[in-house]
Write a structure and sequence with these properties.
This protein is of the alpha/beta class. The chain is built from 9 helices and 13 strands. The strands form 2 sheets. It has a 9-stranded mixed sheet with strand order 5-4-1-8-9-10-11-12-13, with helices on both faces. Helix 1 packs across helix 7, helix 7 packs antiparallel against helix 8 and helix 8 packs across helix 9. It starts with a strand and ends with a helix.
Length: about 300
Amino acid sequence: MAKVTVVGSFVVGLTLRVDRFPVSGETVLARDFDLGPGGKGSNQAVQIARLGADVQFVSLIGTDDFSRIAIDLYAQEGVGTDYLARTSETNTGVGFIILDAAGDNRILLAPGTNDLFKPEHVADASAAFEGATVVIAQLEIPSDTAIEGLRRGREAGATSILNPAPVRPLAKDAFANIDILTPNQTEARVILGLEPDDPADDMEICDKLLGLGVGTIVLTRGEEGATIVTNDGSESISSFKVEVVDSTGAGDAFNGTLATSLARGDDLRSAVKRACAGGALACTKLGVIPALPNETQVDELLADHR
């Protein structure tokens, strides 16, 4: 069985659904409210498990009531928690999400225990990387912790993937630990220390990232799919047309599906195509966890568009 190790965050998501986003100083009545598990690392771990891979989640949560949501979720979904650490120093992370009628979202994050997740915790979980085919991390945890996870994964022979969200600039020596970087067009700029709307061409931005030591870039483009960029050139992969209900978990579905496909031995082009299918399917339902697709759903969407 394919084995993936996820180094990342858990937060509880508190979602308000509204007809439109408020402007400054305005109060808007919400249609409804939902509370459930979230966090990019956690979501990706659930997506990987839902696609049938063996996944271990390396993270740090609290001992508060919100932490029980994580424990219950992983037991239900089959996510490995052998290396899930806990602390009573602060609260489990919380995210506040506003979702409008068009399916767009605004998110605020209070990291909680994620801010206390240190490279030392990753070192304590060194056995989690043994036998892993893919290791994936995100940036809802301190960047040095994420990079330490990728470094240990590469040392163990795994392919390392960084999903640079929420994005922040990285130290230049960090990029050499990244086999595959999966930014959107804005994140690709910010991770280099540039402005989000820097006018440089996307391929010029990708060339800069490759020059810093990144092996491959999978540049995500939302409804337009994704572009694979290497030192040998680029290739665009089209997305799938679906009725968008809630786009909140699309990136996590994309990255979780990509990691699973690569861990199973798919070539990069096939893995990115499956990832586009996974991301599209995650837009078709409300919420993140309920929307993450299983393997049959991904296969059916691919077959419908073959």
